[in-house]
Structure formats: structure tokens, C-alpha cells
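USER: Please consider what follows.
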Amino acid sequence: MMVNVQTDILINRPRAEVAGYAADPDNAPKWYVNIHKSQRLTPGPVGTGTKAAFTARFLGRELNYTYEFMDYVPGERLVMRTAQGPFPMQTTYTWTDDDGGTRMTLGNSGSPSGFSKLAGLVMAPMIRRETRKDLKKLKSILES
């Protein structure tokens, strides 16, 4: 079963600031509710090919996974993908100017396998709820 969820939020900060903060894997534990650890696996500035390892809790389980930045246009879009684990996922961030601030859209898509395949029907609403929390937390951090 394919899961495809998109959420967005208006953040009253310049696009370069929002995109720069959100695209930095070192900041993920600060604004993602379920991620509690991140580690860059590639040196240098963030860009296409960057890899980062994350540890998160989801559906009562601790998940360890590695994302690779597949496409990165600073200030416009970031597409990252993981192939391993129980829920191979593609996450896409886009940033656009909107009413003096930045509209950030966060999309997640993937096909669950293993334990999460059984939970496929409830995953989309759960992911939507969690990503809304994440975006609200990001907005709070950047607007404070």
C-alpha cells in the first residue's frame, strides 16, 4: 500500500532562513517531534549526495535509518530518500514566498513493509498528524 502525505505551513521568516534551517540535518531533532538523534555521514556543506543517519520513534518502535539527499536546490526544494528499514520513504521539502513569509510544504511518500505494512491503512493520517506537529514546531522555533 502506497502512502503519500503532504502538509504545509506559512512561516513568517525569509525563505532562505527557513530553507537553510530545515535542510540542515543537524537541526532535525530540534523540530521533528519523533527524531531524537541525527548524524551527518558525509562531510562538507549540505547538497545532493549528502547522507545523514536518524534515530526516531514511530508506532512505538525505535527506527534507525539513513536518508540520502537526491535533489537539493537551496531555498527551493530538497528531496531525500531512504531505501532500508520497515518503511522506505521519500521526503520532499519545498519553500516558496507567500505573503511576506515562506510557505513550506513537507511531503512523505513510501510503501511500508514488514510490521508497518499491516498498519498501512492508518499510517497516512498518523504521518499527517505528526508532520503537522513538526511544521508547527519549526514555525515556533523560527518565529521566536
Summary: The domain at 3-143 is CATH 3.30.530.20 (Alpha-D-Glucose-1,6-Bisphosphate; Chain A, domain 4). The helical segments are 15-23, 28-31, 115-118, 120-143.
